[in-house]
Sequence to fold (492 residues):
Amino acid sequence: MPKLHSPAARLALAVASVLLALLASRLMEMLQLRDAAVPLFLFALAITAWFGGPAAAAVALLLSCVSFDYYFVEPLHSLVVSPSDLPYFLVFSSFALLVTWFSSVRRRVEADLREALDKLALEVEERNRQASLLNLTHDTIFVRDMSDTITYWNRGAQELFGWTPEQAVGRQAHELLMTVFPLPIEEIRAELLAAGRWDGELEKTRSDGTRVFVASRWSLRRDELQRPVAILETNNDITDRKQREQEINTLNQELGKRTVELEAINKELEAFAYSISHDLRAPLRHMAGFTELLQKNAAPVLNDRNKRYVAMVLESAQRMGALIDDLLAFSRIGRAETRMTSVNLQQLVQEALAEVRPEAAKRDIVWTVGSLPSSYGDRSMLRLVFVNLVANAVKFTRTRPRSEIEIGCQGHADGQVVLFVRDNGVGFDMRYVNKLFGVFQRLHPPETFEGTGIGLATVQRIVHRHGGRVWAESVLDQGATFYFSLSTSKGV
Fold:
């Protein structure tokens, strides 16, 4: 029966319990059962105190004393209390108060106990709900106490490691999983206790013996006194990522070795080309010099065919000299230090045009130079790029009655500027575009257009050293356009 909250109900309980005790006492007296009144009234007081509280118990005590005096104390049917009866009433009242106090205390203790049980039931329900939610996630979650004994093991942990909760709970976590730590465990525990958490990558073992890499996060749980009591650990499988990282590291190491080897080979080739070119210059000068002397001194005794032979030898020697000069220049570009500065491209193009124009002084050429921005690079190298491209445009428009050569800027993108040199010359077949920038690669016969085939290779090497790229577009007999990109700032 719950405790009564209404004052009228508590008062009615006090009256009813005392009335029932009185009727029972009178009935037992009629049945010759003496001295039953006191226990019955005390029982009524206990019932009233238990269900009605202290106020109702006080009313019941007063009614019990009055009823007992009126019906059971001489003279009967009066409320007179003799001095000899006072101790008896005091003992009865004290015992009644003791029963009331005990009932109240017992009631309060039971109420507190019920409240604690309700809270415990709610907490257990909440813990069960949280555990159910943790089981729904695919993340690996388990809890261990400060001695590393597993106390909770969710479904994600079972899926990743293979052990069921029944097999895992109660086991030592690091022994079960054979964990490999990146640091000494003492340092990890010290950081966990100081910061309340720890993050790192661990290597663990599944139930089938296979190894797994996890991104692990530890969170420390403390009690009301801030004492560490448990560690919640979450793990995410990163095995695939670690394998890819290892493969990438292996490839990078291999690439580094190959790069070093290629750099060494490239330096050897450049040194070889420089040495051969330099060593060929002296005998070639002798050949050209003596051929010129032969052509001059033996002309009267040579017939036309022999004169043509001598002219061909001299021409070949001169062409060989040009090849050697270009090869030396190409080699020097690979070995030269790049001096990066801000470059005014508008001024640089004018210098390149001033160098090329004397070769085409008698030709009808329409020059168009657009607005060019500043760039960042080695000024002398970039000047050589424009000289080579413009000289190419002049050479391959030779067959046109009116040559048109345009130099401009196509636009900016990602910190780079795209420049171009366009002409209306003979062009080339795009099927052979990949051969354009190779050393000694030519798309036209030397008797038609002179050249060594190194100019565009030099352009490509310079542009690549500046972090840009070079490409070309053309339609056969409809001109060609050469593009290259350069950085507009020091940081690119």
Residues 239-297 form the longest helix (59 residues). The radius of gyration is 54 Å. The chain is about 55% helix and 20% strand. The CA atoms of residues 310 and 491 lie 56 Å apart.
